[in-house]
Amino acid sequence: MEQTKVNTPRLFMCTAIENKDEIEERYERAYNFFQSLVADCSEKEAHDALNNAVCKNHEDVSLGMLMSILTEPHNATKCYRDLTLITRDGLNSVLNNLSTLILERYLKFQDMTRNQLLWLVKEMIRNAVTGVDSVCWNLMRYASGGDITPKNIILVESLLDIYIDNRMWLDKFPVLVCMVVYTYLRLIEDHNIPQLMALRQKEVNFVIALIREHFNEVLTLGRDLVRLLQNVARIPEFNQLWQDILMNPKSLSPTFTNVMQLLQIRTSRRYLQSRLTPDMERKLVFLTSQVRFGHHKKYQEWFQRQYLATPESQSLRSDMIRFIVGVIHPTNELLCSDIIPRWAVIGWLLTTCTSNVAASNAKLALFYDWLFYDPEKDNIMNIEPAILVMHHSMRSHPAVTATLLDFLCRVIPNFYPPFADKVKQGIFNSLQQIIEKRVLPNLQPLFDSPKLDRELRTTVRETFKEFCSNGNGEGVSGIRDEGNDDLPRGGPDEPAFSDDEDDMLPTIAEDTDDDDLPLSEVRARERPELAAAMPLLLRPFAETLLDERSSTAATALLNACSSPMPTATALADLFAATLQEAPPLHINRNPTPAELDTVMNSPIFSMFNYLVGSNDSNEAKRKLVLETFKEIYAQSSVHSVGYCLLFYLKVCYERERRAEKDPVKKRNVKFKVEVYKEYCSFLELKLAESLADDFERCQECDANVLVWLIPDVYREFKDQVQNHIRLLHIIVSTLDAGQLQRLVCLTLQGNLMMFKSDDITTMLSTSLGWETFEQYCLWQLLTAHEISVEDVLPIIPKLSYKDHAEALTSVLLMLKQERPTADVVRQMFCRTVDDEDTFVVSTVMYWCQDYEDKVADLLAVLLSTRYPGTSPNKRKRPGKHNIPPNAPPSAELVLGHLEQIRVCCVEQDDMSIFNMECLQKALQQSQSNSSDSLKRQYGDLFSLAWEDELPISRRARKMVSNSLPMNPNLHSSNEDSEEEEIVKPKQAKRRKKAISDSD
């Protein structure tokens, strides 16, 4: 076997420090299995063996033969022939595994493996194997653009030769034809060096033939076909094709009218995806879905070294940008997170580009969907990255924004002059959609930024004047700004900055690089457009609010809201911006009225004023405020609205109580709980979960606020919050010792009720995984609420002395305050017996100090009822229908715990409990009815039951347990003296509480 492993050929390249992976081991096992079938066999014997084996293990036989084909060229022809003869699924499993191998491991293939793979594909095409076209599709993804290394060129040319030699087969697969056209059009662009001219000519001839013969199928490629054709338009054959497309479209297809027909079709995402290798795709997806903004530079540097380090790789940037724009469409959750956004990745690709041609192509790739954008057919996610690159680069990389705006202005007349109006309309549709969908609330700060030079600003204004003014000579910000550039800046003899210097002077201090900042800070700095998104009359109020960030400014703004009302989105953006940099809500443990008034100066509290009361004149504003809160919640821009509302209602409640002098009226002051309920209803939130979410945010902000709110929340929302596990965990994870004491005191005063006995077991079971102090707080609160021992009984058998020490200790102390009962003893004895677990022993021995007779009776009954056929209490036992649902402990568990008690009694030199008559009889009956193994296991315990007559002192001990006086000098023999030594400590403990100081 070892020899077989050593001789197994290698499918992949690996370094000395790399271990075999799962796939390689699987193929090696299959190869060894295949070799064991055919080794030392004649051809007929080998064929019979393979046929027999393939019926039982088709997958392994097929994989073993596939590996032989890929690694042993000398056996490949014979092995492929045998494979086609024995296959039971038309080589379907081979094709599936081959596609998986290509997508996941192609880059690790040995050179021989790559050559054999191409040979196998060629053979399967020649034999018209169904499904081989999907293998070709996956293999073509590794024919990478921007790569003219020998290995890549060999793959490109080999695939081309296969298609040329099997042209009739290729013609049967229209989708694969489109893939071949799209791929080789892109590759031809890179093959413009003398060494590759022969290959390039072969590619040109083949692609031209495919386009002309399959033009109707190729039309489905859409607008990116035009983009690729533009890059190769100078090649004579493609120049002629362009002439036919523009001047004689009917010669290509009777249904083809003009190039606009192509440009209005959005290219399928699978073609955009196909121009990146699977490895590149995985890295870009990881970058845009897992890496946090501010921690991305090391990943980008690695990507740059791996894929963009050569001059030829510059052309790859266009492919990557088209992939990011057209294929990576993040979810709303991802857009709201701190993961690096698409615009940041695209900005990095643009700023690191060193070739002017590649840079122009990259810009066209970025804006390509803008040129003929149709809101009915196109996706806004395809145009969003470009506007955000310009918007966010304006601050730290204004040159990037300037070049992109310049490109956008120039592309309108220059893309294709006869279609200039259509291109302009497409770009206008894009900008209109950006405004409507709130990608940016306003384009004025971007199009009229002082960081742009005068000529570019003029061009942008002329090109996009509809987005730069409101028709009254005013910019979108409401400030008349036409002709500002012509204002004199100084007298003829006074020194003055040049235009460029003057434009840059006010912004030098702001031009810091945002690349290493968290995304939330970058967003927080982008504020100039917020006021401009408001109606004209409200803009001064909005600007005042942005400056002051006070409740007074917010109230003035809301009071000024009238027809036309601002949109909820604009108001949400404005208030979110004012709150993001506001200090967190914070109070002292016992806040004073003055402190509360200071805290309430935040803008958000002014909004709550419109939710309280039922004044009809404020109904429109009330609805606007609720819609604003709904928008804020949807954007996840501010997380404190809910608990700030609870805080506001609490402050209002305290103010009203403080203002009321009459004690009766003071008690009748109501906490306006309906306001919070309406807030949750409008936002379609579940009340209990919303409270838990708000308490979680409050916990992160300030524990004092949370503790201050707890009594009112548990009073007003008791049906939703009592026993709410998540909410309770939030609370106990927040408390310190002083805050816990405060809650305990409130509970003892009757002002706080956090628990109800219904279903408390579920909560207790869940709490077992909490931190130590959290569980300590929980049990302190439970104790303060006087939760009965019956409520905690069900969890006693579940508690592990190793893992649940906190709960076990609390239950132990709770039992210490209780009298022994049958239910408690039964649940205790259901615990697993463990020498290190002293819970049962400790409880029983403590109870014996005051209730020894009772404990002995309970233990005797529990032990006797494990042997129903011989139990002396048989007549007293309830019928089966009266047995409680929680099963009693087994006889072995009872004996195990009694044995632990016996050991403890021996150590304390006090066996009195086992000398009780009831327990003696129970032990005798148990021994009589136990198996031999149990008798051997608990021999020491059963030996206590074999004394026919008790010593006098033990009988005296029994008398003491019945509260009869006893003379300690009654017996004087040595035996009696020894017995007295056993009795005395027990007597002392039992009489301890009755002994006075005078005694």
Automatic annotation (TrEMBL):
Main location: cytoplasm
Keyword annotations of the record: Cytoplasm, Nucleus
Annotated Polar residues bias: 960-972
GO CC annotation terms, alphabetical: cytoplasm; nucleus
Biased composition (Basic and acidic residues): 479-492
Residue ranges occupied by any Ints3-like C-terminal domain in the UniProt entry: 594-945
Compartments in which it is found: Cytoplasm; Nucleus
Region (Disordered) residue spans: 471-515, 959-999
InterPro entries in the record: HEAT_Ints3_C (IPR056518), INTS3 (IPR045334), INTS3_N (IPR019333)
Start-end of Acidic residues biased regions: 496-515
Residue span(s) of domain Integrator complex subunit 3 N-terminal: 56-461
Biological function: Component of the integrator complex, a multiprotein complex that terminates RNA polymerase II (Pol II) transcription in the promoter-proximal region of genes. The integrator complex provides a quality checkpoint during transcription elongation by driving premature transcription termination of transcripts that are unfavorably configured for transcriptional elongation: the complex terminates transcription by (1) catalyzing dephosphorylation of the C-terminal domain (CTD) of Pol II subunit Polr2A/Rbp1 and Spt5, and (2) degrading the exiting nascent RNA transcript via endonuclease activity.
Family according to the record: Belongs to the Integrator subunit 3 family.
Record's protein name: SOSS complex subunit A homolog
